[in-house]
Design goal:
The chain is mainly α. The chain has a single domain, classed as Cytochrome c-like domain (Cytochrome Bc1 Complex, Chain D, domain 2, Orthogonal Bundle). It has six helices and no strands. The structure holds heme C. Heme C binds next to helix 3 and helix 4.
């Protein structure tokens, strides 16, 4: 009886710990839909919204999405970086700090696990 009981206690705790640790593109997609999709398309065929399409953003040079070219801030055009996973994590967590003077009207995503998940989701946008 004691063993059965401890299984019930241990299993849910393990499930919670592993879901919190694993990077999860599906959960990133949900966060993206709730917090980013209002401004960002995820296909290059979709018209730009308030922000540039994020299709293929991983590995792309900052400020270089063709359809959005004329609308980037000078700060984003001058950022001079390639969107690596690390660069994306820093920007999504704190846009104003990562690219000072950029115009993304978004305060930042403060949950580090969600930031990782969103970056995992962005990697699926080819
Ligand atoms: C209210 C609109 C808005 C929201 C919400 C928003 N963004 Fe943006 N985003 C923009 C704008 C506008 C820019 C261009 C900024 C500039 O040129 O300075 C941008 C730029 C970016 C870039 C740089 C793209 C490039 O081509 O260099 C990335 C990456 C990005 N956003 C990711 C996200 C993610 C991920 C979220 C959600 C967590 C998000 N954004 C939420 C409007 C938004």
């Amino acid at each position: 009886m004691g063993r059965v009981l401890s299984l019930f206690l241990v299993l849910p705790a393990f499930a919670i710990a592993s879901s919190a640790m694993a990077t999860d593109a599906a959960s990133g997609a949900r966060v993206f839909k709730a917090q980013c999709a209002i401004c960002h398309a995820t296909s290059d065929h979709a018209p730009s919204g308030i922000g540039p399409s994020l299709a293929g953003v991983v590995g792309r040079r900052a400020g270089s999405q063709t359809a959005f070219a004329a609308r980037y801030s000078p700060a984003m055009r001058a950022a001079g970086r390639v969107w690596s996973e690390a660069a994306l994590r820093a920007y999504i967590a704190n846009p104003a700090k990562a690219v000072p003077g950029n115009h993304m009207p978004y305060a930042g995503l403060h949950n580090p696990a969600q930031v990782d998940d969103v970056v995992a989701y962005l990697q699926t946008l080819r």
